[in-house]
Amino acid sequence: MDPLTATTVALQTASSASALLKGLISVVRGTGKAEALNDVLELQSQLFALSEANGSLAAENRLLREKVEELEKLQKTARVLVANWSAYWLPREGGGLDGPFSLSKWDSERILARCRFIHSKEPFASKGKATLIYRCDLTGELVEVPYEFVSRNLVVPAEELEMMSKKGRSKYKGDVNNPFFDR
Question: What is the pTM of this model?
Answer without folding.
Answer: 0.56
